[in-house]
Amino acid sequence: MATPQTRPTVPLAPYNVSLPPFSPLFEYGPARDTDAAQGWNASYIGVASVADGTPTDGTAYRRTRAAGARISLTFEGTGLYLCFDTGGAAFALTLDGQIVQTTTSAANERVCEQADGEANTLLYASGLEYRSHSALLQVAASTEREFRFFGGALEIGVRTGGKTVDDSRTIDDQDSAWILAPGRGGGQWDSMTAQRMFNVTGTFECNYGRDISAAYKFSGAGGAILHGGIWPDSHAFSVQMDDEDPVNLDATSGWEDGGAAFFVAGDLDPAKEHTITIRNFNSDVPDCNRGKFCCVSIDALQLLRAGKEDLPGLPQDPDDDDNSGGQHGPGPESSKKSNTAAIAGGVVGGVAAIAILGVLIFFLLRRRRRRHEDEAYDGQPPMSDEHLARPWVPPQPPMTAHSQVGTSVVLSAAATGTGSGTGPDDHWSPYTSMISSGGVTVPGPVIATGDRKQRNGPGPVYHSVSQSLSQGNISAPSAPSVAGESSTSGLSPSAPRLAQEDLEQVLAFVAQRMDGGGRAHVASVHEPEELPQYRG
């Protein structure tokens, strides 16, 4: 019985989120904004220090000359892109504990446009399984080898039901649906203006504590991005999505950097109501406001909804269209029927023919024995072995592309490189190789987020007819007897030989029975043992 196919899951729509170097999603160590010899220093191209003036259109970056500098990032998505200028410094990126070494020139890469041509290297990992990932960039810089970091981007997945992403819905900080605690105005949440923020406005709070929060409820979106404002009084805070654990962040900077992504959420259920909350409190820094202002600012909430256009490369429903899209493994066409019954019928017919032949030989020999049992032995040698009747064996079926005489042939999805993760073309990522001390390590199966399909489980295996017989799937007839051995028909070496005229009668009778439809057609097309299951 054929296994029913399950309806493939609609994949998430990919969406890239740009992250400037001052985004609090990047965690800098040993210090976020300090002297470059001790950690990371917040800088702008053409401006050496904050005392030279606040830039309005310069290119932001973080630089370091420290030997043990690092940048860490935890994200949920399928891709990570980092743009920087090595300055001759050594660096290493680990993703989920594995080394990532895929780099390219950043000069013509759109993801590095925010670097304005200042970055020369793009380090990336793409095609990841959609889940939470941890990345760590370690840098060994020096006074002569200054490393400059210009930010990057994340690739997340958005639930759109097979549509593209519509990111046109943006909730401004001044929207009345924001739930501000303890309230707006009167020394609490207040408004500010800044050139680098959405609608040139922001809402900020400098009272520090667990009860200082701003929340927004929404539905109908498969993803969301919370943007906040950064200026010299920005420091530690936290963000929470629904009932998940709060994420502690730090936006410390000596510049009025403006708006940046504070929090990114993908794979949200559009049918449910979600609540995103930002608090001016970080449990890792409970005394952030000691001796200084510790403020937080909200800029806008961007909702990622389903667009009007279909995602390119999505497979159609296999129940609705026999020519559905998606990459299938090798095998027969879908219009072919199963030949198991035909093969079984052919084998049974052959066995029946052998049994009939044996019975006829038995009776003919018995009649000949009775006719000669009173005759004296004439001393002549018996007939030669070449006249000994042997069981009839059906001819071999014609050779096909997947079978050979006397050879068991196995074709599997892995042999063609289009299988479920073990073939030569199935890598953890189309671009990223993961290197460990023991050599190349390829993690488990990868869910592409684009039009590439993957098998859910092992790929189909195709067997030749000879292999099916050898494995006991169908009972094979016994091997024919040869001279000097015991036969399956009950003959012995001392039995009288069959006369030539009797042999001709037996063969004519068997041929007549077989030509009447006693032998079934043995098919040469091989079907998979199980229907392959696909997923989106």
TrEMBL record:
Mode of membrane association: Single-pass membrane protein
Annotated Polar residues bias: 430-439, 464-492
Keyword Transmembrane: yes
Lineage: superkingdom: Eukaryota
Residue ranges of the region described as Disordered: 309-338, 414-499, 516-536
GO cellular component, one term: cell periphery
Transmembrane segments: 342-365
Compartment annotation: Membrane
InterPro entries referenced in this protein's UniProt entry, alphabetically: Immunoregulatory_rcpt-like
Record keywords: Membrane, Transmembrane, Transmembrane helix
Protein name: Uncharacterized protein
